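User: For a benchmark we're assembling, each entry needs the component sequences followed by a predicted structure for the full assembly. Here are entry 17's components. Please fill in the structure.
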Amino acid sequence: MERYQQADPEAPTVLVVAMSPALLRFFRSQAASREHADDLLQETWLRIHRVRHTYRPGEPVLPWLYAIARRVRIDGYRRTRRVLAHETTVDVLPEPAPRLLPQGPFPDMETLLAALPTAQREVIAMLKMGGLTLEEVACATSSTVNAVKQKAHRAYNRLRKLLDQAQFSTTQIGGGSK
Amino acid sequence: MTCRDIDRALIEQEDPGSSQLPAAVQGHLAACERCQSLVRLLGAPIKDDMPSPVILLRIERSLTKDLRPVRPLRSLSYFFAAFAATFALLVAFGAYRPGGFAILALSPIQAAAILLSLAASVAVLAYSLVQQMVPGNRQLRPMCVLSGVIILLSFLVASLFRFRQELSFWQTGWACLRTGLTYALIAMLPFWLLLRQGAVLSPRVTGVMAGFLAGLIGTSILEINCSNFNALHIMMWHVGVAALGGVIGLAAGFIGELVLPRRSKKNLYQ
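Assistant: Structure for entry 17:
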């Protein structure tokens, strides 16, 4: 990051290659489609580029980076909401299919995360997919370590219930097919 | 041991230097199927979701296109001092009016309480603004700060001054509001110049805080100059200047939030 601030021409490439997969996973975990996540990723890097001088050498990069990514996601969500509010349906749309957990043996993390409330999802994504510490998540989300712990605890509770549901439906399908 | 203890252990595991679950929770884990599933889920390898090379290339190009060395942001104490100095200068300028020192008519307790509470409010707001200039910084909750300042000032005014009927309540109030708002609007420019040196991630939140701080300049000048000691007048027309400054800042931030994403979108596809 410091090399990037000093305009080392290789620094952006190194940084983009190293951090983009984690940032993309973060956006994907926030229930964004692949295209939307790609858009958010590009926008995040442009914003990082614009405010790169605000990174203070020696400080951890992840909270700084994720705070920007989080803001881009919020702005993206607001923009989408505004666009949707202006769109008018000209025809009767079919009923959307109810969001169900996959019926496989064990649902994956992303599917379960999508069912969590945004604040909890964000915390779990940063902790588990981004590899941030509790302290770093607290900084990135402008909250306290205790608030992060509370959100993680609630998320784990909810995940347990979702896992129960998934296992119950798997058993039901297994029993029905016999 | 309960599932709650497993949660606690899983959360503590996120801290550096504690990668293994403690032995104490292993017993519960062996017996509880629900916790086993949760631990298995959280420990499962993360699906590799790589961005497409085309997008990575596009990002790299846009970043290297105008790559120039940048000087890291100055220390946050510098900005804190700059906010405080701007505040002090503008208040001194606004308060320096011949015969305007109405605060001298107040008792020492009244004057000290009002000035100290204003100084404390300014310090908290300036600190909060400075923290917002750097992403990933610990921040005070904006709503708590704002409501705390309003409650503190209103409580002090209500307890230190008397409420009384006033015939020209609206006329005198309007004069105070106009004076206070003029200084608040003037203060918004240097505040904006300071803030734009950092990274304002949430223009709405930063706008409301900066507007409120600018409004407090108007409030402070009125507290020093205005000879109307009616509690209702002070609450509505002096403290109201700060609140109105916050509303103006919020509106400015809202406009900023609408304009900034469009600008960045334009850059994205250039």
